[in-house]
Design a protein that fits this description.
Elements (H helix, E strand, L loop, with lengths): L16 H16 L26 H11 L5 H6 L3 H12 L1 H9 L6 E5 L11 H7 L4 E5 L12 H20 L4
Parallel strand pairs: 1-2
Amino acid sequence: RMDAAGRYLPTTTCIDDVMIKDSREANETLKQTGIVKLINDDALRLGMYGPAVQGCFCPRCMAEFAKREGRTVLREEIVSGADPALTGRWMDFQCEKIPRFLKETTPKGVENGIMVMVNGDRRHGIDLKKIREEIPTGLRYRVGEGHFSDGSFTSPQAEEQISRSVGNHLALIANGDSR
C-alpha cells in the first residue's frame, strides 16, 4: 500500500487482484487441511490509526480512481478536503475493497470474519454498513483493541478505550451507520 505522500507502507497492503488471488489460494489450502473458520486480522484495511482520510494511493489505484472520475486526480486533492464530494467518492472507492476481498477469498463451506481496526471507519477503507449490506449473513466481526502488549492493558484508560471502540463498532454494525 502506498500512502498519500507516495511512500510504500509495509504494514498493510493494496487489496488488488494479485492480493485477492493469493489470499483465495491460501484460504483454499487452509480449507483442504480442515480449517473451516477464518478471521482476518485488522491489517485488512486501507489506512492507519488516526483522523486522516487514507487509502491506497499506489499508481494502480490512482489510475483506477482517475478513470472513474474521468480526469487525473492528485493525491493532494483527495486528502486536502477542499472538495468534500471528491473525498467522499475516494472513500467509496476504497471501501469497495474489503467486501470484495471477503466475498472473493472465502471458500465455499468456510466461515470468515474480520477484525475491525480500533476506531476504524470509512477514512481507513472500512465501511461496516457496506460490508454488512454486501455480506448480510455468515460474517463474524471482532473489534481491534489497540493494545499490543500485556502491559498496555493495565493503564486506567485502557478499559475505557476498549469499551468505547467496541461500543462505536457495535453501533455501526447494528445501526448501519457508515461513519
